[in-house]
Design goal:
The chain is an alpha+beta fold. The protein has one helix at about 1-45, and strands spanning about 50, 65-70, 75-80, 85-90, 95-100, 110, 115-120. It has one domain.
Length: about 120
Amino acid sequence: MAGLVSATSGLVTQTTEQGTEAELQIIGDRIGAQILSADRILATDGTATVVLNPDVPSQVNGNSYTVTYDKSNSKLVLESTGSGITVSIPLETEHEIDVESTQESEWRIYTSSDDIKLGSPGGDS
């Protein structure tokens, strides 16, 4: 009986981790797509003001998550604060990406001169 409980517990943990990883991947893909849109607009019109609000949840499996940009590897990195699960999204742009805040309940992508910023909705004021 103890073996069955242990096996079931392991399966639940594995399923939860896979769900967290999948959710982070989807969130990263959405944020990345919006950043690429801003990058294309800036490449076309360097004076354009772009403000995008990616539709992403504030939590993953009940935990908040962080978003950073690894400039040396050109990757958006998302990490669940509760589980430590991390996913990386390849993201190469023509313009500099600046993550102003790593953890938000809402995200905003906007341009400032010749770079792209990722932060809170109040970040462009």
